[in-house]
Write a structure and sequence with these properties.
Layout (H helix, E strand, L loop, with lengths): L8 H6 L4 H13 L1 H19 L7 H50 L1 H7 L4 H34 L1
Length: about 160
Amino acid sequence: MSGHVTDRLPLAEAGALDPAEAARVDAHRRECEDCAAEAGAWRRIVDELGRMPSPRPSRALVARTVEAVEGLLAERREHAWNRAALAFLVAFAWTIAVVSWLLVDLLTGALALRIDRSFGTPAAWYAAYLVTGWLSAGVAAVLLGRRKQEEGRVA
C-alpha cells in the first residue's frame, strides 16, 4: 500500500488540500482503482454532509457572544491606552529628572566643575537615588496592576 494516498482522500474530497497536493492526489486516483473507489465513497459522504441542515445559533447566544467580544476589544483598547500613558509618563519623568539635575547643577555652579572633571560622588548618589526611586515606583505599579487584574477577574 505504499504510494497510496488513502490518508489524503477525505481531505481531497472535502476540498481542504492545497492545489499542489490536490493535483498529486488526483493524478494517483486516476491511476489506482482502489484509491478511486475509496475517493468515490468519500465523495458520497461529503455530498450527504453538505445536504444536512446547518444549526442556527439562538439570538441570545449571538447577543452574548457579541457582548463578550465587544467587552474584550474594549479591554484591549484600555490596556493599550494604559501602556501608552505609562510609557509617556515614564519618559516624561525621566526627562524632568535629568533636566532638574542639570538645572540644579547649573544654578549651583557645579555643572562647570563637572564638565572640567569626571563625575564625582554627588552624581553617583543622585543616580542611585533616582534608580532606587524608579525601581520602587515600578514595583508599586506592577503590584497595583496585578491587584486590579485580580479584582477584574473576581467581578
